[in-house]
Amino acid sequence: MAVQTVASTSNPTVDLGPAAALSCRECGHRVPLGPVFACEECFGPLEIAYDFSAYGTEELRARIEAGPANIWRYAPLLPVPADVADKPNINPGWTKLVKADNLARELGVTGGLYVKDDSGNPTHSFKDRVVAQALEAARAFGFTTLSCSSTGNLAGAVGAAAARAGFRSCVFIPHDLEQGKVVMAAVYGGELVGIEGNYDDVNRFCSELIGDPAGEGWGFVNVNLRPYYAEGSKTLAYEICEQLGWRLPDQIVVPIASGSQLTKIDKGLQELIKLGLVEDRPYKIFGAQAEGCSPVSVAFKEGHDVVRPQKPNTIAKSLAIGNPADGPYVLDIARRTGGAVEDVTDEQVVDAIKLLARTEGIFAETAGGVTVGVTRKLIENGVLDPTLTTVVLNTGDGLKTLDAVAGTGLTATIRPSLESFREAGLV
Amino acid sequence: MAVQTVASTSNPTVDLGPAAALSCRECGHRVPLGPVFACEECFGPLEIAYDFSAYGTEELRARIEAGPANIWRYAPLLPVPADVADKPNINPGWTKLVKADNLARELGVTGGLYVKDDSGNPTHSFKDRVVAQALEAARAFGFTTLSCSSTGNLAGAVGAAAARAGFRSCVFIPHDLEQGKVVMAAVYGGELVGIEGNYDDVNRFCSELIGDPAGEGWGFVNVNLRPYYAEGSKTLAYEICEQLGWRLPDQIVVPIASGSQLTKIDKGLQELIKLGLVEDRPYKIFGAQAEGCSPVSVAFKEGHDVVRPQKPNTIAKSLAIGNPADGPYVLDIARRTGGAVEDVTDEQVVDAIKLLARTEGIFAETAGGVTVGVTRKLIENGVLDPTLTTVVLNTGDGLKTLDAVAGTGLTATIRPSLESFREAGLV
């Protein structure tokens, strides 16, 4: 697919498929595709502007359905070159959409309940989707080092993707991260640099490095490549609809960290409607947070348009962003679609992890406990309609947050004899 | 697909698709399908005998290719009812076959090197394949409890599958298993019983329970359901060939625990040849063990037909079976196909885990370190031909054996300043 020329904003050396330019979310100012993330006019966030005119609806649907069993089936709708599937990449996506009938019974959902289980990605979190996009942008811009600041999932996703694609990687983390998380990130063999400071210090240092000659040739997936990176979350929306038979769900429950994922899922659904791939009818998007880091939920309930930062204190560490950049957009979307934002306690998160595991055999990360717990709470409060088709996201694997369920253990201990077995009341 | 009637050995109440009877691997004695695993005549192991006459080759290929993206695409070749994909199951399989060009360069493989990455299964090991088969047999025989003896991966696979399918589960493990493994098995909410004793004691107890009225209605996936369970490994062979474009690989490197997986992969390849789905041409199967538990490798190198048991002492715990039941069959297959059996030290296992991670972004369990390490050793020794197409199995996820690479860590620690960054020599 050729890049369409967009007057005065095209960058003829960059082939990122249907991506035509970067456009400011606030003021609409357009700039050529490049490794920039903030508007030079108003400092608003830059987003990808597309030209989707290359295909008719049914041609596009046929192309997608004939594509590979990963996110590259949607290459015509992503900022990637048409031949992306032939390049070395860890090829995330096309994860299972599990019809969760047992969970539905427990929660009283009659309209069809589904879990979109992103623990099936290569490094077992949805981060593989966004990193895969950033990697293609890094390739297009001639970067040779892939980098990020991280406190966990992202570090592994960047390390794995860089290794496979032949990039150098250099990941920055707080120096006192838990040893398990360090191992998961270090095993891919890239540079893993501990910063003496907290996550904010790590981020500040990365911004400094981008502006310095030392950072030349470096693509920071969640900083200077952020507009491309963020688009990866759209694929969750595409997959859910295609897996439902090219149908919009009535309700989706999405976890909120920075809020980017939720806004991009909405963007993906809107694109499918505009492209005619799904019927245009209402859907509701619900945001889920942990009580210990619930700035968006608090703002939603208080009717505010702005989000007051919080100091996170929750076991759902992959969602623990106290000052979420996309918080105001999340509030807009929840209100516009008739959804809501809700939060649950850490105890409810653990209960929900166990509930999902014992009903559907899916072992979720704490973020999955947050979405399932919030779904339950929203049903109990009469906010989520149990007679409608509902999709709940699980964005990561329970093996990554074992500590959260560390209290789970043996139900009995017996001697190796039938007598002891009978005494334990297990028959 | 209807079960074909086989005189005097059919069980008309059991619909397990093309499975026609159980047949003794040693003496050929046939008995009706049922929850039995040893021949009543000679105590040899029972295997499934099939009737594959229902489909012509091209009809079969078309059915498979139109099937779901999991093992049930091969339902016409498995001991499961034709409508298996509609039943609640965790639907493993159709995992990635990764073209490993970076690893190939490091190892000097020029004929095409692939990693079959079974860490992508629902509970992140190949055990989901075998448990899914056992579950369908348990359903067919009217069992209500799914059980097993386990030291790790299998416990989680049984817990997850039972939860999803609405079975009670009761898993027996040594009482002093590491806490992490206990949590991974316990989270699915079934009974998890610690036995005061070692793994042998656990197994002896399970055999006792099967013969007792207390065990009525219990399906032990790796004991009384073993003939069905074991067939799940055939799907690895099917997927590899289909993913290669319906082509046999020249060489496959398979880990050896009990040896069952390797024998079933050979069985699967033979079936594809007989059914005309792949061209009939030679292939070589190589077995991989850890030096600390290498009874089959030792027997192979010494030219023996029998396997002398060992007391395991290796970090590759998922392969640590000192007295492998299928060892003699493995020796047969390695010799018949022109393959070999080799072993590597624990240090080589760790090196191989890191090698695979830094070249392909795949984080393997210790068993994957064993196969990659053995592949390297076989190439260095001139046993494995680097000019031929080679497939290496990774049967589990590195997150399950984090301890093996616990020494991996930060490459540098710096202050959050460019000066400190430059001093560390990271530019």
TrEMBL record, chains A, B:
<keyword id="KW-0663">Pyridoxal phosphate</keyword>
<protein>
    <recommendedName>
        <fullName>Threonine synthase</fullName>
        <ecNumber>4.2.3.1</ecNumber>
    </recommendedName>
</protein>
<dbReference type="GO" id="GO:0009097">
    <property type="term" value="P:isoleucine biosynthetic process"/>
</dbReference>
<dbReference type="GO" id="GO:0009088">
    <property type="term" value="P:threonine biosynthetic process"/>
</dbReference>
<dbReference type="GO" id="GO:0003941">
    <property type="term" value="F:L-serine ammonia-lyase activity"/>
</dbReference>
<dbReference type="InterPro" id="IPR036052">
    <property type="entry name" value="TrpB-like_PALP_sf"/>
</dbReference>
<comment type="similarity">
    <text>Belongs to the threonine synthase family.</text>
</comment>
<dbReference type="InterPro" id="IPR050147">
    <property type="entry name" value="Ser/Thr_Dehydratase"/>
</dbReference>
<feature type="modified residue" description="N6-(pyridoxal phosphate)lysine">
    <location>
        <position position="127"/>
    </location>
</feature>
<dbReference type="InterPro" id="IPR004450">
    <property type="entry name" value="Thr_synthase-like"/>
</dbReference>
<dbReference type="GO" id="GO:0006565">
    <property type="term" value="P:L-serine catabolic process"/>
</dbReference>
<feature type="domain" description="Tryptophan synthase beta chain-like PALP">
    <location>
        <begin position="92"/>
        <end position="396"/>
    </location>
</feature>
<dbReference type="GO" id="GO:0006567">
    <property type="term" value="P:L-threonine catabolic process"/>
</dbReference>
<dbReference type="Pfam" id="PF00291">
    <property type="entry name" value="PALP"/>
</dbReference>
<dbReference type="GO" id="GO:0004794">
    <property type="term" value="F:threonine deaminase activity"/>
</dbReference>
<dbReference type="InterPro" id="IPR001926">
    <property type="entry name" value="TrpB-like_PALP"/>
</dbReference>
<dbReference type="GO" id="GO:0004795">
    <property type="term" value="F:threonine synthase activity"/>
</dbReference>
<keyword id="KW-0456">Lyase</keyword>
